[in-house]
Design a protein that fits this description.
This protein has 13 helices and 30 strands. By secondary structure, it is of the alpha+beta class. It has two domains: 205 residues, Rossmann fold (3-Layer(aba) Sandwich), CATH 3.40.50.880; 239 residues, Fructose-1,6-Bisphosphatase, subunit A, domain 1 (Fructose-1,6-Bisphosphatase, Chain A, domain 1, 2-Layer Sandwich), CATH 3.30.540. Strands 4-1-5-6-14-13-12-9 form an eight-stranded mixed beta sheet, sandwiched between helices. The two termini are 37 Å apart.
Length: 456
């Protein structure tokens, strides 16, 4: 479960001579209703301790207290200092930040905005006017009205921010950063008697990982590959005798740079590997094959792909496979289905005469024996991870891979297959393939529909 850190307000209790940290209990309920685990941040414990020891993947800056610049007092100053330091940390480490009411104000001030006092904004409701260029415009459009509990509004907005929405009088009600994953709203989602599903969807969409960004990176890598595709190739060979071209290296650079801009997770690729001593404790990381099917690329048969997967707890939870020549994009997220070119795919074939698949360049006698033993007469050949993608969309029923592959060869297409009613079964363990092993070599496996069983 994704963990979201929540900031608190500060209040003075004169009867006990205490400064207290306070949080409306509805904030934790709100984050929990979005499917996340709330982690409340205290003031007197260094917040880095939480981030270094807990896999926190987002921050909610809550309401309560004025900014010190709007109403000077010691508690406001203390909270400003804490939250701006937290913002600096989140920006440096690419951690998404969502602000509510005062949370929006502190974000706005952090990025150079100024404020003005306004009237008639407490305990009333507004219709929203949504900026059509806002990233979350589709979610914002579904909000019929929002509540309001504030006396200060943005007067001049900072250069790095844009207005996501205003009320009908032009008062700024939501903002977002132009380049960093930061969004903020002036209304209190947690104060609704029953949480508004559209408001929950906005928060969920914000803190969920945007697969569209990963698709864009895969396509950018594909574009870079295609610039090399029709040229005379310079081919080198690695220690394992596998070929590598300029396209592999260019695509690798595009993907690594692209992921670094949208994510703080570490990256392992075929061309930039990481030792097990470093990655063994990673809970979440990117696993990439920048050009899967280099032999297909060299042969110019068009059947090579760009593979990007997100691994969590040894399993792929997101995968993107892009075939640059055909411009086909396959993608999936755990529990959200598999898609090809924006249309959902699922292997619901009821064929009695099963269709198998084999590699263009890596067939073996064991594979041929497998087809004969299981009475599979029709065998289609594809390159790269397309074999598993073809399984996901129901073009084939089974793909036995009875020789060497690496984790980056299978991870992205693995989650696509899983979300399309298929499995990749390790022939030794009889379980699904796992990732981030000491050796990144896969055991032999059989990819098939979930309802099929085979012996090798």
């Amino acid at each position: 479960m994704k963990k979201i850190a929540i900031t608190q307000r500060l209040v003075t209790n004169d009867s006990y001579f205490e400064v207290r940290e306070c949080l409306d209990i509805n904030y934790s309920k709100l984050i929990s209703a979005c499917g996340y685990m709330p982690i409340v941040l205290p003031y007197e414990v260094e917040f880095k301790y939480y981030f270094e020891n807990i896999d926190i993947e987002g921050v909610l800056l809550t309401g309560g207290n004025d900014l010190n610049s709007c109403s000077q007092n010691d508690l406001s100053q203390k909270r400003d200092t804490f939250e701006k330091k937290l913002l600096t940390y989140c920006i440096k480490n690419k951690i998404p930040v969502f602000g509510i009411c005062r949370g929006m104000q502190v974000i706005a001030e952090f990025f150079g905005s100024s404020f003005k006092r306004i009237e008639n904004q407490v305990n009333i409701r507004h219709d929203l006017q949504v900026n059509q260029s806002a990233i979350y415009k589709d979610c914002l459009k579904l909000l019929e009205t929002v509540n309001s509990y504030h006396n200060f509004s943005i007067d001049n907005i900072g250069d790095n921010l844009i207005v996501s929405a205003t009320d009908t009088n032009g008062i700024i009600k939501a903002i977002e950063h132009k380049n960093i994953k930061i969004f903020a709203q002036m209304w209190h989602s947690e104060r609704e008697k029953n949480f508004n599903q559209s408001e929950l969807n906005l928060i969920k969409k914000f803190f969920s990982f945007d697969i569209e960004g990963v698709i864009d990176i895969a396509k950018n890598a594909g574009d870079a590959i295609m610039k090399v595709y029709h040229k005379e190739l310079d081919i080198e060979y690695k220690d394992d005798k596998s070929p590598v071209t300029q396209a592999d290296l260019i695509a690798n650079e595009v993907i690594v740079n692209g992921l670094s801009k949208i994510s703080s997770y570490p990256v392992v690729t075929e061309e930039s590997q990481v030792s097990y001593s470093v990655r063994k404790n990673w809970n979440k990381y990117w696993l990439v094959d920048p050009l899967d099917g280099t032999k297909d690329f060299i042969a110019k048969n068009g059947e090579f792909t760009v593979n990007i997967a997100l691994i969590e707890n040894h399993k792929p939870v997101m995968g993107v496979v892009y075939a640059p020549v055909t411009d086909d994009i396959y993608y999936a997220e755990k529990d959200r289905g598999a898609f090809k070119n924006k249309k959902q795919i699922f292997n619901n074939s009821t064929r009695i005469n099963l269709i198998g698949s084999d590699s263009n360049f890596h067939s073996t006698d064991m594979t041929k024996y497998f087809f004969k033993k299981n009475k599979i007469q029709e065998v289609k050949r594809y390159g790269s991870s397309l074999k598993i993608c073809k399984l996901a969309e129901g073009e084939i029923d089974v793909y036995p891979r009875l020789n060497g592959t690496k984790e980056w060869d299978t991870a992205a297409s693995h989650i696509i297959a899983n979300e399309a009613g298929c499995k990749l079964v390790d022939v030794q363990t009889r379980q699904e393939l796992t990732y981030n092993k000491k050796s990144m070599k896969n055991n032999h496996f059989i990819a098939s529909k979930n309802n099929l069983e085979f012996e090798t």
